[in-house]
Amino acid sequence: MAQSWLVVGLGNPGPRYEMTRHNIGQLVVDELASRRSETFRSHKANARAAETWLRPGTDKLILAKPNSFMNVSGGPVAALASFYGVPADRVIVVHDELDIPFDTIKLKVGGGHGGHNGVRDVAKALGTPDFPRVRVGIGRPPGRQDAADWVLDPFGPTERKTLPILVADAADAVEQLIDEGLLAAQQRHHAPRS
Prior knowledge:
Belongs to the PTH family. By secondary structure, the protein is an alpha/beta fold. The chain has helices spanning 24-35, 74-84, 117-126, 147-151, 157-180, 182-189, and strands at residues 4-9, 41-43, 47-53, 60-66, 91-97, 105-109, 132-137.
């Protein structure tokens, strides 16, 4: 039986943040929508959402981008999950991860938030940390740059060359997670990149 999945890309609203490291989750959700020729529409849950399918006739996908700032993402995510009747174990959160090198993707279900305030707020709002996460590596800042500034900076020139491939791979990871399960997606995406 087909099920619904809610795939949320975390980030900050507005053009100022669009191409920053903190918004890579939203770039991945944009890629998933683009593959299906879908556009986002305003949703009463303080988010933009697109309703589509993994493939026609299969699991329903709700792709979403909260309109709130990253650190208060939980309200829109919980409201969307409630509106669409999606349980936490089918709410996939796509987000940036400082502790993973750039151009690396890791998937997990549950666990801590690793200091990521957006993930912390989603776990609090859903009432559980046990939701799937697609963690897209942005790496730590060089030298003494503050991590808070780093995540709000645009991608550098070298990163921008690889970014479309990384975003496409992360979108593939979301699709495989839904299609084949966590273990299969981990086995493919946790392997060293060639």
